[in-house]
Every structure is written in structure tokens, then in C-alpha cells.
Amino acid sequence: MVNVLSNETLLKQMTAIQKAGNNVTLREDNARAFVMDAVASSATLQKLYVHFANSGTGSIDKLGVKRRTLKEHKGTLTEPTGTDIAEENEVKYNLSALYLDTWIENSNTFYTARTRGQDVRQALLGLMQQQFAADTQDLAFNGDEADADAFLKLNDGFIVQAKANAAVKHSFTKLPKITTLTKVIGQFQDKYINSTFVWHMSRSTNAHYVAEIQNRQTNLGDATITDGKVTMISGYPVEVVDSMKNGVILFTPFSNLATVWGLNVTLTTAAQDTASVAKQATYHFMKEDIDFVIRENNMIGYIDGSGSEDEETFLPAG
Known about the structure:
The chain has eight helices and 15 strands. The chain is of the alpha+beta class. It comes from Enterococcus devriesei. This is Phage capsid protein.
């Protein structure tokens, strides 16, 4: 049951925040909790690999483990030579300082607090976390430092990185048929492909494949539609990624897409001034360091429909 706070209580809480203002850098444990709460509000972001960095530059472990490491035990003659389980050492990251500043209308704050049974400060933080998570997911997939857009050029996202470095990549003249996607799976080295792979695509791209399946004369059994969305292609699940660029598909495990976060989160709420009175809103500022990393290029496939490759003549290697 939601604990509904009275108008008087909400107004008192808002007044206290507006009078005082605040500027705080969260402790490491609180910063980590704040980021995880924000990530949890995003459908796809919460499924990706998360790493908290102790410095602005560094490295994280690559994804994958070596195979065929079993050896014959020879009793007292056995040599403890050991096996390095890590597939390859590490992949670099370089954090970028990003910030979110926003005006949150008082009416929106009160509505959120009332419907969720939160106090005003909780409601304000929740609204900021939602916006931060939505923007982070957008940038994580679509970011492109070469783009002219002020937002997209903040950092290179997974799409740009995969287009440049993926072990398997194709740029067809149009979005390929599902049967062609099935052929693409066969291009991965056996030691890298596994059951954790996922097709990542936008809602519009997903709708394109819904239409393809519905227009087939016969059911080929290579795709599944559930509640109006394609949920399986060639035995692998499909993730519809909000805000992802249309006409692009990434084929990779969630754990191969990493968001790297700094351990310092700065939160500022400005004290009330003439601007906040006129806007009937409060001004909030949040700063966090972040980077996006593909942990193993051999475990990601990039496919788009804006190139010159003819899928009719496409034959997978091997």
C-alpha cells in the first residue's frame, strides 16, 4: 500500500530543499547504489555488464574463457603447470565526465511523490535517475564522437565500436532477411559463439521483421512473435532497445557490452531564486564519469541495411 503524504508535508519538504540547496559528492558506496538504482530503471541498460572504475583510465577483463584445458592426471608424475583461465588479458577504458542539468517542475515532483509514497527529495532523485538512465542507454548504443550532434559526440557507443571492430560485420543494401541472419551466426568461431548471444535492435527494426514473418507463405520456424514483437530469431532471444538507431542489429551477449562508471557522483540542487520562482520548478545538476566498452570483439556481430553488400549472393565463410 502506498503511503500518501499530505500536501502540507510535501510543501514543507519542498520548501526545505529550496531554501537550503545542496552540493554533495556521494561516498563510493552511495555513488554505486545511486548508479545501480538509475540503471535498474532502464530496460536494457540493467542487463549489461557494469564495472566501477577506481581511476579515469584503466582496463577491465575481456569476456571469454579458454577451452580444452583439461589434462590427464598422472598421479605423482603430474606437473602443476596450471592454466591461465582468462582468454585474453584486458580491454582499455577512458572515462568521460558527463553531466545532467535539468529543471523539474514542482507539480511533477508532487505528483511523483504522492503516487509513489515518497518524500520530495526521493521523488526528485528518482526523476533525475530516470532521465539519466534513458540518456545513458541512448548514448551507450548510439554515441558517435564523429557526429555533429552535441549529445551523440559525447562518447563512442557500441554501434560505432562494433561497426569498426566486430569480428563479424555486414552492411547490406537493405535489412537482411531472417534466413540471412541465420547464415551470419555460422560465421563466428566455434569457441566464441554460445547460448548467451542476443539480437539487439530498435523497436522499428523489430517491427520490420514482424512484417516479414507475417507476410511469409509458410512458417519456417526460425522466428517467434510474442505480443506483437519478434522475441526469438534462429534460437536466440531478441532485445528491443529503446532509442537504438534504426536499421542496425548487434548480435552479442549482454555481458559483452560494458558500461564503466566512476566512483564519484556529484549532486547539486540549487537554492530557490527568481528563476525557480518564475518557472515553478527546481534546478538540479548531476555529474558522473562513464565509458562504454565492448569486452570481446570476436563475440559481436554488426549488421546494417545501409551499405552495398548484396544478401542474395552472401555465402558465409566455411
